[in-house]
Amino acid sequence: NSTGLMGEDSNILNYSGSTITAGTAETTGIYSFLKSSGASVDVINNGTIDVSADNSAGIFASTLDNSGASIGTTLVQNNNNITLGSASEINSAAIGIYGTKGVHILNETGSRIAGGDNVVAIYSRDGTVAHNSTINLGDSSVGIYMNGGNAEINNGSSISTGGNGAVAFYANSGGVITNYSSNISTGSDSI
Question: Which of 3, 68, 103, 125 sits most deeply, having the most CB atoms within 10 A of its CB?
């Protein structure tokens, strides 16, 4: 359980030209969390994040206190590349960006999340997502997973996945995904 960059109630900037590698199981490239009620922070990735192990994340952002209540807001903005190596199974997926309630994930124009098999590009639990760029994943993977919350897949963005049950977007627990993109593709035996 290790982390490249960690911020408590703090802004985080991964500079252009910088690389963070999460190369062993249960590691996180950037970890942001809140302790102070009303805190508002930005997590900006202008560099490269490489994730190559099970149960790991490129960026993990939480606004939740110990009771599970959201106590502030976090913007996670990806402006560059996050690369996910294949995980052993989808239940041990590597995740590009994970956010809780109170976290807005912005995958900005010109960025890219690319991955192998059994990975999830973006996972939001009761938060919000705006996807403006490119996601390319392998077999048995999920492009954007909304466990509650709201996501917009904007015009000009794209999501492509492999086959074997891969899913471009998945929503449950009242999650809402609005797609404005015509660039969505999946492989054989996929959704």
Answer: 103
